[in-house]
Batch of 2 targets.
Target 1
Amino acid sequence: MGQLIEGVWKDEWYDTKAHGGEFKRDTAKFRNWVTADGAAGPTGEAGFAAESGRYHLFVSYACPWAHRTLIFRAIKGLADHIGVSVVHPDMLRDGWVFDGDFPGATGDQLFGSRFLREIYLRANPKASGRVTVPVLWDRERDTIVSNESADIIRMLNSAFDRITGNDDDYYPESLRARIGQLNERIYDSVNNGVYKAGFATSQQAYDRAVAPLFDSLEWIESLLADHRYLAGERLSEADWRLFTTVCRFDSVYHTHFKCNRKRIVDFPNLWGWARELYQWPGVAATVRPDHFVRHYYFSHDMINPHRILPIGPVEDWTLPHDRG
Ligand SMILES: N[C@@H](CCC(=O)N[C@@H](CS)C(=O)NCC(=O)O)C(=O)O
């Protein structure tokens, strides 16, 4: 675990001391957009046109942010157009590595690198900052398009539609304002909230994270009592962004990050909604408990010093979801 400083790897854990024991997530540094015609997107440079075979994703099956991009690749019919390299689930002194000795870890399919940081240094030999997944790589310009999952899923939602013929829209114009409101609260209190609770190094920082987390889960439970999906009757980006945290919750966050006031299975609407999304065509194959259980319990030895992986829980995600 570490970061790049002016192109040099420094092995260090998150600095929570600077913020009263609180974990602060870094902002992503590469923020270009793939667009249908290569015009510039909301941030970054122009020149990244959607083309089959041109782009590649570097991901971890363990990571909820990377998981979003794998889901969009699956549900938007992009598997034949965007390649994938999957890192090893253990993230230790060297950060993410490409060892292939774990089922589903593919190694670096483009360059045969050992470390993910080599991909960042290829894009910018003087790169500084955390070396995170997901990374969307451009094989033509030999650089990183983006390392921000929130942006990558919006690109995958629409930029390749002419190539795939799949125009399913998870960010429709009419729901954008509502999706924005949902994302804001859910990102801060749930997606990132579990990390703020789990990485807290003071009681106060933990308390400040865990109360809003469960308030938000109760609020989501009530939304899902009245509507099939978060933004109403239509499945949207907001649902997929929440799903990647929810599918890790009972097996990882509940125990390892001490988010244990309740489990997902204790919220009937949320649990049914989660099973429906899990059962959505193409999605189950992107959910890899073997990677996420191993990653969290093994990599974070400051939380779990003996690196013992837990036996449970046993939950059946294939049960009928009863949401239709
Ligand atoms: N803003 C990024 C966050 C990605 C992120 O933090 N990924 C984690 C894995 S879950 C990571 O790679 N962490 C490595 C590190 O912080 O050194 C996104 O959503 O794409």
Target 2
Amino acid sequence: MAMCIYKLTYFSLSHYPPTSIAIVDILTTLVTTILVVATHHPNINAVVELLRQGITELGVGPYIEDKGTGDLRYVQMAVTTYNTSLPAAERYMNGLLLSFFNSFGKFKLHWFRYKLNALANFLWKNGGPRSRLHLIHSVWANFQTSTNNIIFGNRWRHLLGERDFWEHVGGIDVSLAPCSFGQANTRAFDTLLRKLQKYVPYESSVADLYAGAGVIGLSLAATRKCRSVKCIEINKESKASFEKTIERLSATVDSSITWHHADASKDPFLWLVGSDVVVIDPPRKGLDASLIDALKNISSVERKALSSSESTNSSQEEKRPWVLRAKEASVQIGNRPSPANIPQSVPQTLVYISCGWESFKEDCKSLLSSKAWYLEKAHGFNFFPGTQSIEVLAVFKRGPQKKKPGKKKKKQLKGAVKH
Ligand SMILES: C[S@@+](CC[C@H](N)C(=O)[O-])C[C@H]1O[C@@H](n2cnc3c(N)ncnc32)[C@H](O)[C@@H]1O
């Protein structure tokens, strides 16, 4: 089926010899593998084919991990189906690609000037807006000069095409930058968001932890009329996408919305207080231990919140660091009071979105063992068809699980029969 992984396709060139013939072989192998995976968006396969031709013609050398030689390490592509000039039914098949190259080793100017530009121009000429097949939206380069196993470095360069890349998901227009996290399967993600929205009461205050560019929080602000939304994310590059997305939010969205460049594991109490609903969407490794502890000890968080709100009422000058930080990074929409000025609540609903089944099971066990939360509902989503991976949306509620009224009735009924 075509509905599947149509975004973020990586292929590593790292284990192959650095000759262009070998690259053809590598790519032939890789392309064959990629093409037979019918789950990819067809335009990814078409651009992979173009890339194979370009790499061969220009003699671009692959990075050899063991030797530390070569140039090109990864190529990543993402498809947007955002094109409102087309009828909705045609948008998917007409998706355009954002492709980016990842070069490795010391930053080599000659390589950048010649081969990287030549490769980008080759793609643009054959797949850009003036080509017979318009496949490519933009081309970017990333420079990873460290020898660790982190795929992307901090340096990005926009080479060709439009800078802004938009998708429509969860009821809002979302700006996606190559340097910020983006979900791999936007269609499946949209389904998950629609489900998630139903668990968030209208007018809630929401904390979106591990927020990336804040897509989840902003989607909730728009669809659930949230009083406030705080997005907490460790990657500062995501802020630019968040701000662009905010600009396109409907004027009817009347929430206090903030994005914070912060580590959710450092003093998580700061982010839990003042929220009715917490959404957590951690990387594959799952939740940080300090956040799990804070969630397990949510009652003490509640006591702390009460005492700090009492002490704040009596003092004139605001000193609490989380309030000061919230003010600093705040993007206010509408006339709602900021989170600092509303009564301090602690979350009653915890929504856990997981892409790592094993870590989710551990975290879930840990949360339930504390009796601070019970699992109300869980849904599975197939974000990566053909793989073992499953995306989970789990909804936890505060306190020990209440007995279902139906069961009680049965007991009474049994008793009544006995006597
Ligand atoms: C699975 S992604 C989810 C992103 C976002 N919720 C979305 O759907 O677009 C996990 C995000 O957590 C961020 N992250 C990882 N560790 C973090 C931490 N300790 N504190 C805050 N954010 C973190 C990553 O940079 C990444 O953007």
